[in-house]
Design a protein that fits this description.
β1, α1 and β2 form a beta-alpha-beta unit. The longest helix is centred in the N-terminal third of the chain and has 13 residues. This protein is an alpha/beta fold and 129 residues long. Strands 4-2-1-5 form a four-stranded parallel β-sheet. It has five helices and six strands.
Amino acid sequence: MKIIDGTNAVLGRLASYSAKQALLGEEIVILNCEKVIITGNRQDIRETFEAKRRRIGSGQKGPKHSRLAHLIVKRAIRGMLSHRSGRGKEAFRRIRCYEGVPEELKDAKKIVGNKEKKAKFIHVEEITK
């Protein structure tokens, strides 16, 4: 099992790494999903996210874009897997995302994401408000 701390990790890079490891058969746990960053212009990111949120049809139809930080990260990972086929579906089931750190994982050894911050970025928790 690989435990990844998402603090200041770039969303796309974190998602691609997690997807590749899950396809190789690893169990992936991502902590602190609310502190993951999305690079780019703040206003553009927020507008794009809100446009996706408004596009939902009735309660039965999708696509559904959640406002919860751990589900935003999980959906980004899903986009890098073929989640409708057998192998991708199994890999997607091996991925767990959490906001904060659960009690059972407090003392576990963690892989730390990229600590180098870009000039333009926004945290996932800022678009979930």
